[in-house]
Amino acid sequence: MENTLKRELSPGVKQAVDRLYAVFSGYRAPSYCLDVCLACCMDEALEKEMRRLPLRQISAKHFYEYNGSAKDAPQPPDELKYLLPRMLELLANGAEVHHSTELYLDRLGNCEAGAFSAEEYAAIDAFALAYFADCLSRHPWQSGEGYGGDAAFEFLLMFAIGGIDLKPLLDYWLKDESTAATLYYVSAGFYEFWKDQRIRNAFAEDRPEFQEVMQTWLTDESHRQTFARRILKLEMNNLDQTPTCYYGSRITPQDMAETVFDLITY
């Protein structure tokens, strides 16, 4: 498990994190045991530290065990409201706060409807948009890191599991003309959607609403035309063309871009 913070916050994400701390500043650490299993899931010392340490000193290691523990449904909202700003700050820094990215916000999604105020929901939504926009601003093919993967879909599923409306995030992606945003459309779509026209992610199998939202957005004719035009403008020769293995074949980012273009312009 890697808990080291990996990147500095962008100005937009930092502003969203600061807003979270301000909006949730009225909540205090619980004086009672957190909603975790101390028998086999979470170390008792770590549980106590989460309630006694200053909020911004709680580490990714604490949240990794907290989020991976057996838990109640619905969740106790005041406990989560206290911890949420720090957890989202760590998430934004690239820390692992669960064994699976898609489940980072599982506790948030398991709070009852209406458990947060309008101001609190707005702060969470603002963070989601800032975080996703920051994600779309960088792609591994531009920095020579190779595999592009399906990170954009993973993050969207993470927010959907957290109960966050995806429409503002998808609207932003549609309007984002950056090279990185188009590359995410290519890589995520190639690996995780166009083969079956269904998001291929184990955590999305029992989430029909998420599947419907994504399928509607991805197959919309005007959306496909928009991204087709952007793919044509890509200067793929300037990007890392290291091939990756896909179903036994070696395939380059150029191959993926051409494949996705053909699929969305059928």
Description:
By secondary structure, this protein is an all-alpha fold. The chain folds into 2 domains: 106 residues, no CATH class; 128 residues, no CATH class. It is built from 13 helices and 2 strands. The protein has a two-stranded antiparallel ribbon with strand order 1-2. The longest helix has 19 residues. The N terminus is likely disordered.
What is the topology, as strand order, of the major beta sheet? 1-2
* Contiguous uncertain segments of 5+ residues: 1-5
Rounded to the nearest angstrom, the radius of gyration is 20 Å
Task: Provide the structure class.
Answer: mainly alpha
Strand content: under 5%
How helix-rich are the residues, as a percent range? 40-55%
Shape: elongated
Please report the number of helical segments. Answer: 13
- Main sheet record: 2 strands, antiparallel
Q: Determine the mean pLDDT.
A: 93
